[in-house]
Amino acid sequence: MQPATAPAYKSRRADAAAAASASAMTPINKRSTKPSFTNQKRTDRSGKVVPGAARLVRPPHLMAPPPPRDSSGQLAVLQKEGTLDVDEVYGEQEKALSDFIRLHPMLSLESMSHRSLQLMGDLLDDASIPTKELEVVRKSHDDLFLRPPDVNIGERACCLGERCICVWMARWRYGEDTDMAFVGTEFLLPSQHAAYMASGALPPTPGKCLVCSRYYTTFLYRTARSDPTFKPSDKIPLQAYSNSLGVASGDSVPTHASVACDSDGYRQEALLFVDEEWTNTSAARGGMSTFLWRPCVKFCANHYTYVCDPATSLPRIVQRNVGVTPDSEIGRNFRQPAPSTTAKTELANPQAIPC
User: What's residue 76's pLDDT?
Assistant: First the structure.
């Protein structure tokens, strides 16, 4: 094709395209060729045309009137006619969504329905809960560590230092300048204590004393029991700074199990109460599941009494009303007899008391 004839060729193509588009257009004033509903004739059942009824008019679509109100302007609780409001009409968008979900059933919320979840739950009738083996500790072994450490033989103090619970319980009871406050001895399990007595070896990481260990065990359990979103693997800071001793987690408790309801053991009311509802939480099925099977002594400040050791003249702690065996100082838990009636009468009458 020559370059001189190119504009004429383009103009012919443009004219042809315009003519084709014009033939496909429908004028606004063009009369429709479709049969009109008003031009249809009315016939009876036999097919004969009914005279005088050649034109039929389709009734307009009217919205339902608003429901009637009573004399006070309130709507009735139950209406006589069941009608759909404007916001309840099944529109084009709802219809398109229904067709799309029917085409792609995996995009629906059927997988999260009660029926689907119940079917998935029935697949596993029994579920195993992991647990860990713990050393069993008797009450007489616990009583050995309720005292200050003996640094002359290599014992270590509680890793919390001045924040030890033994220090703060004494200050809360006897004041800031009391001589009964002390940092407890690092608690050792029976196997660790036997290794220490044989070779003097201690654990690589210093640990807490017995009172602090019970305090944080009770704290972590009650936190997990009251908060369903508690994660045993999360670290809880115990100090203002962060180091290997300044955090605690639910996976680290309990550290040992105690003898319960037996000689040289603890009473049932001294143990940490773990109810059955806790088994439905994620913490009870994870790192803290051992609480369900192993008895652990809870922390209660009323169970500890400060005394002075006559052998060393140093303060120590004695457990009260927690052991199965009655305490030696109070015999079989009998109290002192009540004063006589005469003494009560003399105290009630001030004139009978000599000056």
Answer: 74
Cβ-based neighbours of 259, under 8 Å, separated by 6 or more: 136, 137, 138, 139, 265, 266, 295
**Residue spans of the chain under pLDDT 70:** 1-11, 13, 16-64, 79-91, 103-112, 123-127, 234-250, 327-355
Q: Which residue has the tokens 């508690």?
A: 230
* Separation CA 16–CA 156 (nearest Å): 102
CA 186 to chain centre: 33
Q: What is the pLDDT of residue 58?
A: 60
pLDDT at 347: 46
Location of structure tokens 């050791």: 309
Phi, psi of 55 (to 5 degrees): -115, 135
Lookup result for tokens 């972590």: 220
Distance in angstroms (rounded) separating the CA atoms of residues 277 and 209: 31
3-class SS string, the chain: CCHHHHHHHHHHHHHHHHHHHHHHCCCCCCCCCCCCHHHCCCECCCCCECCCCCCCCCCCCCCCCCCCECCCCCECCCCCCCCCCHHHCCCHHHHHHHHHHHHCHHHCHHHHCHHHHHHHHHCCCCCCCCCCCCCEECHHHHHCCCCCCCHHHCCCECCCHHHCHHHHHHHHHHCCCCCCCCCCECCCCHHHHHHHHHHCCCCCCCCCCHHHHHHHHHHHHHHHHHCCCCCCCCCEECCCCCCCCCEECHHHCCCCEECECCCCCECHHHECCCCHHHHHCCCCCCCCHHHHCCCCECCCHHHEEEEECCCCCCEEEEECCCECCCCCCCCCCCCCCCCCHHHHHHHHCHHHCCC
Q: What is the CA radius of gyration of the chain?
A: 44
